[in-house]
Amino acid sequence: MRVLIIGAAGMLGRKLATALVKAGSLNGRPISGLVLADVIEPDAVAFSGEVETLDADISEPGKAEALVARRPDVIFHLAAIVSGEAEANFEKGYRVNLDGTRALFEAIRKAGETEPYAPKLVFTSSIVVYGEPLPEYIDDDYVVAPLTSYGAQKSICETLLADYSRRGFFDGIGIRLPTISIRPGKPNRAASGFFSSILREPLIGEPAILPVSDDVRHWFASPRAAIAFMIHAANLDTRLLGARRAVTMPGLCATVGDQIDALRRIAGEDATKLIRRQYDPAVADIIAGWPRCFRAERAEQLGFKAEADFDEIIRVHLEDELAIPASN
Amino acid sequence: MRVLIIGAAGMLGRKLATALVKAGSLNGRPISGLVLADVIEPDAVAFSGEVETLDADISEPGKAEALVARRPDVIFHLAAIVSGEAEANFEKGYRVNLDGTRALFEAIRKAGETEPYAPKLVFTSSIVVYGEPLPEYIDDDYVVAPLTSYGAQKSICETLLADYSRRGFFDGIGIRLPTISIRPGKPNRAASGFFSSILREPLIGEPAILPVSDDVRHWFASPRAAIAFMIHAANLDTRLLGARRAVTMPGLCATVGDQIDALRRIAGEDATKLIRRQYDPAVADIIAGWPRCFRAERAEQLGFKAEADFDEIIRVHLEDELAIPASN
After folding, report:
1. Handedness of CA B137, B139, B143, B148 (dihedral sign)
2. Confidence check: pLDDT of A18 > 90
3. Among B95, B162, B79, B8, CA closest to A143
4. Which of B137, B147, B154, B277 is most deeply packed, by most CB within 10 A?
5. Keyword set for this entry (chains A, B) (predicted)?
6. How confident is the model at residue B264, as a pLDDT?
């Protein structure tokens, strides 16, 4: 089977391509070809089958059609303008996150008009589709009410995905990712950046800034768990989903204090001393509007799994990013 | 102030125009002009101020901009392809119900770029944004999960409305209308048609067909109540809504049996004998997927009011459509 990854140049896209090569199959069928697309041409991956890399912005005319013309059996759609940029640039956010996704959905629908075609489609959504009033734990029946344009765009695409799937144009599943921690790479300016940097930097002896208080609580999964969600979603029998095609992924409900405690257990007290507390009311305000924890019962029943504690998340980071094998 | 009604040729649009003329003001400000638009040119209404009637399909290029160029202070957006047609014609449904609405929203946003402009916007949505699994009573925190393309389109427009309002491009409110009963006019082929015809026809001595069982339960309001919802929405201080700009309207939770009992009390046993029970499994199946009853607490707290029983709904019909004054 052929697999298309849209957003293949991003952190998760690259990890997904590598994981698919390693798995060699999806849904019991061997992967014969990989198409890796992004707004900048992604790096190729070492693979025994065909690998094609393409620069394609699906919000531009004809680009989604060109990707779909390759008739992939499974499509992972990860591409998006991030939250901060979608908020800063209203038109660009809607063009890329909504119109680009709709262009992809339409290209698939129209490809099916000439000869039967209904690929599996895994769409990465986000827990920021939820907004105030936020209960401490959000359950699967709770109303979606985004507080950002990015959240609105993700929510709208979930609704389109469900309708296109119900119509049989494709077989879609939307997975609402928790905040990814520990993101590899350099510190960035995302409001959520500190959730990764307060662990990532001290683990390599570098300082990090904590802009919120220790009792801030949020919902986390490692990059490794996020990739496992995507592959599990692609393998899933979507009849189990019913009409609700978007599923909140499981995660770890933890406070910043829990993160620091885990860092102390794994890397020692000295590592935690590299975290400098520098309260930033602007960041604290943004984070206060985010969902905290979930009861992700549907996802758990469907077999999605996340980490159980931050010790595990740190060990995943050490293994996957720093090549340090787990000691226990 | 100037008021624009989009969808002014429809049953509710015509009643709304008449009601606005009668009220003479919105939000304490006198209405100086009415712009009545629809895909077919609406009839004018007798009004001391300016009345303009226009045929305009807002899903066509430039049409929404032309309406917005009149800088209405309040916009009622009622125009839509109905549920059955949106299901039968996928492209037309999305073009009119989603792209048309978005074109309107974009026209307003862009009009505000040259000089400040942020009208009040009342958007009529529907309770069919809700889908399975359906609890007997749906509360305001329950997840939206449409089971039709029409429901998906309304839900998406609600999400856009909230985001555009949050951004300050306009001051929007979405009102989810119950099933309207008793709709005036001739029987139509809508699956919900019998909810009106089993009362409307017997009240004038005509037969009507009931295609479902007497215990079917649903959520109703009269046309008069629907118009009152719209006007109340236009007058409402939307700061009371918070981030959730769509509100499920109050209604009457009643069974078909309740409808028939009310008909008996108002028009006598003979009237009920005009209802012919002719079970239609196709209609029964459609109705089975519809929400039944709501706890519309937000709407009630915001001062929206519906009828308390079907006797009242029948009396409203007698007064408003047949000019028969209420006897008690």
Report:
1. positive
2. yes
3. B162
4. B154
5. Carbohydrate metabolism, NADP
6. 98
Written as six digits, the tokens of B307 are 């009828």
CB B286 within 8 A of CB B212: no
Report the gap between the CA of B223 and the closest CA in chain A (Å).
28
Are the beta carbons of B211 and B276 closer than 8 angstroms? no
Q: Say which residue the tokens 């931050």 belong to.
A: A310
The whole-number pLDDT of residue A325 equals: 86
- Spatial contact of A53 and A62, defined as CB atoms under 8 Å apart: no
A150 classed as catalytic: yes
Residues A194-205: pLDDT tens digits? 999 999 999 999
Query: Do residue A141 and residue B144 have CB atoms under 8 angstroms apart?
Result: no
Among B59, B69, B132, B70, smallest CA distance to B97 is for B59
Strand (E) positions, chain B?
Answer: 2-6, 25-26, 29-30, 33-38, 50-55, 74-77, 120-126, 137-139, 171-177, 179-180, 208-210, 217-221, 246-248, 252-255, 275-277, 293-295
Question: What residue type is B118 in one-letter code?
Answer: A
Residues A184, B243: Cα–Cα separation, whole Å: 34
User: Residue A112: what pLDDT?
Assistant: 97
What is the distance between the alpha carbons of residues B62 and B56, in angstroms, rounded to a whole number? 10
What does the alpha-carbon distance between residue A191 and residue B219 come to, in Å, rounded to a whole number? 44
Asked if A54 contacts A36 with a C-beta cutoff of 8 angstroms, the reply is: yes
B323 touches chain A (CB under 8 A): no
Answer whether B231 touches A (CB < 8 Å).
no
Say if A142 is an interface residue toward chain B (CB within 8 Å).
yes
CA–CA min distance B44, chain A (Å): 37
- Condensed to tens digits (0 to 9), the pLDDT of residues A261-314 reads 999 999 999 999 999 999 999 889 888 889 999 999 999 999 999 999 999 999
Burial class (CB in 10 A: 0-12, 13-18, 19+), A19: middle
**Rounded distance, CA B118 to CA A245, Å?**
35
On the question of pLDDT at A27 being above 90, the answer is: no
Query: How far is Cα B64 from Cα B56, in angstroms, rounded to an integer?
Result: 8
Task: Enumerate the residues of chain B whose CB falls inside 8 A of the CB of residue A140.
Answer: 143
Give the pLDDT confidence of A291-302 residue by residue, as tens digits.
999 999 999 999
**Percent of chain B beyond pLDDT 90?**
91
Pair A107, A65: CB distance under 8 Å: yes
pLDDT of residue A188: 73
Instruction: Label the pairing between strands A137-139 and A29-30.
Output: unpaired
pLDDT at A328 over 60: no
What is the value of ipTM here, to two decimals?
0.96
CA pair distance A126, A61, nearest whole angstrom: 26
Kindly list the distances between the CA atom of residue B262 and the CA atoms of A43, B20, B266, B272, B313, in Å, as whole numbers in the listed order.
71, 30, 6, 10, 9
φ and ψ at residue B90, rounded to 5 degrees: -55, -50
d(CA A114, CA A71): 12
- Which of A90, A143, A156 lies closest to B143 in CB terms? A143
H or E element at residue A34: strand A33-38
**Residue B276 buriedness (CB in 10 A; 0-12 / 13-18 / 19+):** exposed
> Which of A94, A117, A137, A150 is an active site residue?
A150
The span from the CA of A236 to the CA of A230, in Å, is: 10
The CA-based angle B17-B19-B21, given to 5 degrees, is 70
